Amino acid sequence: MQQSILQTFKENEKRISQADRLELIVNTRLAFSHMMRTIKAFDDWLQDPFITTNAPRDLLVDVWERTVKILEELLELDIEHTSSMRNTLDNYFKMGQLNPILTRLREIGSTLGGEQERGRGEIGGTTISF
User: Fold this and answer.
1) Do the Cβ atoms of 24 and 16 come closer than 8 Å?
2) Are the beta carbons of 52 and 46 closer than 8 angstroms?
3) Quick one: pLDDT band at residue 47, thresholds 50, 70, 90?
4) With 90 as the cut, is the pLDDT of residue 70 above it?
5) 128, 102 Cβ separation under 8 angstroms
6) Is the pLDDT of residue 61 over 80?
7) Which of 17, 53, 84, 106 has its CA 20 to 30 A from that of 25?
8) How, if at all, do strands 126-129 and 120-123 pair?
């Protein structure tokens, strides 16, 4: 099954390079969904007593090293994406081009005190940071 999914994503990659924003979002979410299922399966695998008592150390070292590389790349993506989106939204706000709903959420977030940082509004489970 994993081979089939891998092949599908590889074939889809060529088409996605020309996709519109919605298709990019949908396909990225599909990729994230599959990554989460795969990570959960790996975590379950590492909790299985049969695996933990019989897996060779070199296999576990390989899983660890590759997992850390994936984690580092994911964290770098998150940092870069978050910074880029914050800059983009700040620029849109300064030019008066920010979606009016996001502008209002920013205003609400700016008036929130206490435990939330200035400029962050959390409305209905959605976080908007500026």
Assistant:
1) yes
2) yes
3) very high
4) yes
5) yes
6) yes
7) 106
8) antiparallel
Q: Domain coordinates of the chain in residue numbers?
A: 1-54, 56-99
Residue 107 binned pLDDT confidence (cut-offs 50, 70, 90): confident
What are the DSSP calls for the chain, one per residue? -HHHHHHHHHHHHHHHTT--HHHHHHHHHHHHHHHHHHHHHHHHHHH-HHHHHHS-HHHHHHHHHHHHHHHHHHHHHHHHHHHHHHHHHHHHHHTT-S-HHHHHHHHHHHH--TTSPTTEEEETTEEEE-
Q: Which residues sit opposite 123 in a β-bridge?
A: 126
Length, in residues, of the chain: 130
- b (16+ CB within 10 A) / e for 27-37: beeeeeeeeee
pLDDT of 43 strictly over 90: yes
Dist CA 55 CA 130 (whole Å): 46
What is the mean predicted confidence (pLDDT) over 23-49? 95
